[in-house]
Amino acid sequence: MSALELIGIAATQEVSETTGANRVDGITAQTESGTPVGAVVNPTYVEELARAHEDSGFDRVLIAHTSAMPDGFVVADQILRRTTKLQVLLAHRPGFLAPTIAARAYATLDAFHPGRVAMHVITGGDDADQQRDGDFLDKATRDARSDDFLTVVRQEWESATPFDHEGEFYRVKQGWSSVRPATPIPVYFGGASDDAIRVGGKHADVYAFWGEPLAGIAERIRQVRAAAAPYRRNPRFSVSLRPIVADTEREAWARAEEILRKTQERWDTTRRTFGLDGQNAVGSQRLLEAAAQGDVLDKRLWTAVAKVTGATGNSTALVGSYEQVADALLDYVDLGVSTLLIRGFDPLADARAYGRLIELVRAGAAQRQSARVPA
């Protein structure tokens, strides 16, 4: 089994589905219906959140991407400069930067922070959000473009001599970069459609899933492994979940109900504020299909927030005591998952609280690994 990796979430201001107040430079500012107040880029909060993740034992933080968010490369550099060990998973949408330029940008960032940078390729499942940046290709064509994009990126990273490329979307003549990663930059890939699985199977070092029930994740792993086999690739797997933890199960469920209440009150405004219309990703459809089966699946997979938000982003939670949620996370590890992306509904407080959860998960994974090794 691969070493277990824990990933959190980065942000430049305090906001989530349930946010009712923003702290701006240490001052609490009220919000209306979850709409953030204050600077979109708050350096103090960026540093505080990053250090909370590092102190809690996270390996990386995801720097997400939408058409309205601050530049991820700048945010990544700021986080890496303000921490000592924490790594970043920097999301990127193919199609807006030439693959040679994107490859050099990642390689340059990695040169300043060796071994602490990974690329998360997001083809983009929301047509409306793609169109805000001027991309009007359909989803299947975007997946094909991602395939061509990643082929060039790998060549730019790895070629010690100039290379030519003739693809459907990109043509390169004598491409070459003076800055190349000393060790490979991992490529994470997300997507639930058949086209995405085909492309991810070909290119991904880590294939990322949203928090489906265990049976759904087992099915997805089989699909990706089959897609990767012709290329002799053996990707690792990631699952994204929203743990809601407390000292007791009763306290955790009380918190979950409060999160649901706030989400129901504020989601419509949050959706409009961040332009979260037009969600048509297959991954969202899969989460909604799971949610239709019930509010609680498996041991403690809670789907109620996914129902309210239309499964926008990773929106399924694990609810229970620290020990119960750690056990539920380890059920995914038993399926072959080696990366757990966990983020809370109160990003800073949860990043701090998850230190206890991470200790339990790592200890449990080590125990299970020892049990598999013959004496």
Structure commentary:
The chain has helices at 43-56, 72-82, 99-112, 127-132, 139-158, 194-203, 214-228, 249-273, 282-291, 304-309, 322-335, 347-372, and strands at 5-9, 21-24, 27-30, 60-63, 87-92, 117-122, 163-166, 171-175, 187-190, 206-210, 236-246, 296-297, 301-302, 317-321, 339-342. Helices cover 46% and strands 19% of the residues. With 375 residues, it is an alpha/beta fold. The chain has one domain (5-368): Alpha-Beta Barrel (TIM Barrel), CATH 3.20.20.30. The chain has twelve helices and 15 strands. The two termini are 17 Å apart. It is globular. The protein has an eight-stranded parallel beta barrel with strand order 1-4-5-6-9-10-11-15, surrounded by eight helices. Strands 2-3 form a two-stranded antiparallel ribbon. Strands 7-8 form a two-stranded antiparallel ribbon.
Structure at a glance:
With 375 residues, this protein is of the alpha/beta class.
Record keyword descriptors for this entry.
two-stranded antiparallel ribbon, single chain, TIM Barrel, alpha/beta, 375 residues, 15 strands
Number of helices: 12
Globular, elongated, flat, extended or rod-shaped: what is the shape? Answer: globular
Beta-strand portion reads 15-25%
- Assigned CATH class: Alpha Beta
Secondary-structure element series: EEEHEHEHEHHEEEHEHEHHEEHEHEH
Average predicted local confidence, pLDDT: 90
How many domains, in number, for the residues? 1
The count of DSSP E runs of length 2 or more, i.e. the number of strands, is 15
The CATH topology label is: TIM Barrel
Low-confidence stretches: 20-34
Helices and strands: which structural class?
Answer: alpha/beta
Rg (C-alpha, Å): 20 Å
- Give the terminus-to-terminus CA distance: 17 Å
